[in-house]
Amino acid sequence: MDREEELQTLLLLVKVKGHVRRGEDIIKLGNSPSYSTVLLKGLACRYKLTESGRRQIFTFQYPGDFCDFDRYILPGQDYAVAALTDCSIGVLLHEDIERVTALYPGLGLALWRSTMVEASIFQERLLNVRSRPALPRIAHLLCELMVRLDAIGIDGTIIPMTQVDLADAASLSPVHMNRMIQDLRKRGTLSNSTRAIEVAHRNQLMDIGEFDGRYLNIPQLRSPSMHPLRVVV
């Protein structure tokens, strides 16, 4: 059985659970269910609340991503996952994951690789927050969102989230975030023709964010013949 057939075997085990409205939790803090949740449609985020009640977003989930695969290995993880847009979700029982990965070790390797990529994204997010000034920090975050949306066949030009969501991911106040978004609009990097966050000049945004997307492990970003700031045109 080839890799595509193995993947189809896994997908057949996903059971559709339902819909989650924007702003609602897909995974609640402290939950340790006997299944892992797969995002089928929409955009979600993994987050925790600080002692002051502020939300800190760690990673984003896109269609096809597990929201909480690590809980299959470490059930007691203390984070929540929220829907940033209206979402459709499915579930994969842990007993089914164990059974199918035992039959097809290549699937186990693929799932392991996905957790390593998520760790790499988290590491880059930490570097972004701690080391980059506000404007390149936001530009880098927007580049990541744009490239990941493009990779799954969704137009990454339109960033489907609010400035508050971005602020919580970039560790900035909403007011500071708004100032930086306005700065990018004045530069022509973001469109001025809509209230949505729309990228007008991708390469310019990548230059500002000094974006090298190889940490995302997307094949078209790993080619040595491609300049990392010019991989999406």
CATH topology of the largest domain: Jelly Rolls
Supply the helix-strand structural class.
alpha+beta
Task: State the fourth-level CATH superfamily of the largest domain.
Answer: Jelly Rolls
Shape type: globular
From the 3D coordinates, which CATH architecture of the largest domain would you assign?
A: Sandwich
**If strands are numbered along the chain, what order do they take across the biggest sheet?**
2-6-4-5
Low-confidence stretches: 222-233
Oligomeric state of this protein: single chain
Instruction: Just give the CATH class of the largest domain.
Output: Mainly Beta
When the domains are counted, the total is 2
Mean pLDDT: 87
Main sheet overview: 4 strands, antiparallel
Secondary-structure element order, as H and E? HEEEEEEEHHHEHHEH
Work out the helix count: 7
Distance between the termini: 36 Å
Q: Find the count of extended strands (DSSP E, 2+ residues).
A: 9
Instruction: Give the fraction of residues assigned to helices.
Output: 25-40%
Keywords for this entry:
233 residues, alpha+beta, Jelly Rolls, Arc Repressor Mutant, subunit A, four-stranded antiparallel sheet, three-stranded antiparallel sheet, 7 helices
How would you characterize the overall build of this protein?
With 233 residues, this protein is α+β, with helices and mostly antiparallel strands. The protein folds into 2 domains: 3-117, Jelly Rolls (Sandwich); 132-221, Orthogonal Bundle (Arc Repressor Mutant, subunit A), CATH 1.10.10.10. 40% of the residues lie in helices and 19% in strands. The strands form 3 sheets. A 4-stranded antiparallel β-sheet has the order 2-6-4-5. The protein has a 3-stranded antiparallel β-sheet with strand order 1-7-3. A hairpin with a 5-residue loop joins β4 (44-49) and β5. α3 (105-131) packs antiparallel against α4. The longest helix has 27 residues, at 105-131. The chain is globular, with a radius of gyration of 18 Å.
